[in-house]
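Our example copied in:
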Amino acid sequence: MNKTPTSVADKPNRDPNLERDRLIESHIRLAYKFALGFRNRGLPLEDLRQEALLGLLEAAERFEPERGWNFSTYAGHWIKKRLLAALAKEKTATWGTEQLGETDVAAPESPELGNSQDQALTFPKSMPADERRVVLLSVNKGLPLKEVANRLGISVERVKQLRGKALRRLRQ
């Protein structure tokens, strides 16, 4: 039988692991470039680079050159997929900590622990005044977002945005 090779593994005199390693080594900069595009979205750059490299590894494992795709295009899909999944996972984890943070700050209002006004929050000098007001009203006083929005004359969505920014600043 005269069988034509259909993948890198079927080609004679070629080690598929060497081919995969060559693809990965030649496209590391592409993975790092994608990682740079996702900066300032909640994950440190080093974590983004690691996720991008994992996406590149996935692409190299699944790549089938006989389909006619350019590897960099194919790898870009897997790298983006991996980066977006990592950001979504971090966002979910961060949201959980924000909720716990609110509970921890609001807890001193119970009679056994004393008044929450005894514990003053310290804000960074770089934090804008509107973010400070949102944190004081929503976290320290325990007001619902709708009430905070009414008091400040802004939308509930804007209150959520400001609170998220402020809590991220406080964590740093």
